[in-house]
Design goal:
With 408 residues, the protein is an alpha/beta fold. The protein has 15 helices and 15 strands. The chain has three domains: 89 residues, ACT domain (Alpha-Beta Plaits), CATH 3.30.70.260; 88 residues, ACT domain (Alpha-Beta Plaits), CATH 3.30.70; 212 residues, Rossmann fold.
């Protein structure tokens, strides 16, 4: 015979937030020996919504519990609603706790009601429920403009999903139409336990293609830029395109490389991102199809743990037009990601890869989280996640980290 259930009630408290409110209301329940089965609250613009699922024991009088809650709410100037919950409804709620959970992250400079409504509609249309909505971005003044302000909202979802491709494609369509980023991820143990982030360098950590800068200084800018663009679009084999471009740089002086390295423009958010990742204990790496002369200087500047890139051959202070050692192409980037993860004792689901070009796709495809950053169309289509509307530190939202306003 099933054990008898005590009375279960759902308590919703809303009104102006104030110090001591939770202590006072939960204290009423404590005085009657009530067991708290679930509790949660949200505060928006100093207005609180507090929910409590409570089990009233047989030794307590439910009428007295409810009366004391109403008295306390009146004293505090808040509203309380009480709704009984059946034993069957409670058990269904308990049984649902093992179901799959997913995360949808909306990210842009600003988010409109239309954009949020569209994403929420897609979620509902695929049979998923939004359990929690969290703002990850900081508060932004409407009176005083903030340069590079971000807006980010995260949905925590529950429910059974037969296949992910349909919802991913629909969210991608909204993302493209609305000019925002929408990420869709499984909320599993790996999402909360990633520890290695590998970055492409050119047009990812820095806002330029270094080889194009070198070519411009050497007077072969147009020829090299054409080959670079074709390679990034996947129209030319990367290895061969790199050899062709390096040959065009024959005779460039090392002094010119130093001048270029000194003025490399960092991507918006790069310094804040790397500093935050270091503070959180992440390992970081540069995996670049560019050149180690620049990668090593960027590594020192940002405090990055690993750096791998192509090595330029020099003779008598000038480039010979040849490379030394094994070329870092797309497959080599993927192999290096595996190598660094193994050295750090990490599994691939614990890794993140970020890049913009076709030669980044192999590492993006094997990482636990592959992010196309302001990427070429072919990369945006194939990568698991995208950031196109904000700076590089938008990555922090995709791993669930809120803005820390004093550090912004």
């Amino acid at each position: 015979m099933a054990p008898s259930m005590n009375e279960i009630i759902l308590i919703n408290i809303t009104g102006p937030d104030q110090k001591g409110l939770v202590a006072r209301m939960v204290g009423v329940l404590a005085a009657h020996g009530v067991n708290v089965l679930d509790i949660g609250q949200a505060v928006i613009h100093d207005y609180i919504s507090l929910g409590i699922l409570a089990e009233i024991p047989a030794t307590a009088d439910p009428a007295n519990v409810k009366k004391d809650l109403l008295y306390a709410a009146h004293d505090l100037g808040v509203t309380v609603s009480l709704r009984p919950t059946s034993a069957d409804a409670y058990e269904q709620w308990v049984a649902a706790q093992g179901q799959e959970r997913r995360i949808v992250t909306l990210l842009g400079r600003r988010l409109s009601a239309r954009q949020i409504a569209q994403a929420a509609g897609v979620v509902a249309g695929h049979g998923l429920n939004i359990d929690v909505i969290t703002r990850l971005s900081g508060r932004v003044s409407l009176r005083h403009g903030v340069r590079h302000a971000n807006a980010c909202v995260q949905f925590t979802l529950s429910g059974h999903l037969a296949g992910e491709e349909g919802i991913r494609q629909r969210l991608l369509q909204i993302s493209e139409q609305e000019g925002i980023d929408i990420s869709f991820q499984r909320d599993d143990i790996y999402r909360r336990n990633r520890r290695l982030v590998c970055f492409d360098m050119d047009s990812t950590l820095i806002q330029t293609e270094v080889i194009d800068e070198m070519a411009r200084v050497h007077g072969v800018g147009e020829e090299v830029a054409a080959i670079t663009a074709a390679a990034m679009q996947g129209q030319i084999d990367f290895a061969e395109s790199l050899r062709q471009r390096v040959r065009l740089l024959q005779g460039l002086e090392e002094a010119a490389l130093a001048e270029i390295a000194a003025r490399l423009p960092l991507t918006e958010g790069a310094e804040h991102l790397i500093a935050t990742l270091r503070q959180l204990g992440y390992k970081t790496a540069i995996l670049s199809g560019g050149f180690d002369y620049f990668g090593q200087r960027l590594q020192q500047r940002l405090g990055i743990d690993y750096a791998f890139a192509n090595r330029l051959e020099m003779a008598q202070g000038r480039l010979t037009g040849h490379l030394l050692g094994e070329m870092v192409d797309g497959q080599r980037k993927a192999a290096l990601l595996r190598q660094i993860a193994a050295a750090e004792g990490l599994s691939l689901p614990q890794t993140i890869a970020v890049g913009d070009g076709a030669n980044d796709l192999p590492m993006l495809s094997i990482a636990g989280l592959g992010i196309a950053f302001h990427a070429k169309p072919i990369v945006r289509q194939q990568a698991g996640q995208r950031i196109s509307s904000v700076g590089l530190d938008g990555l922090l939202y995709l791993i669930g980290i809120r803005d820390r306003e004093p550090s912004r």
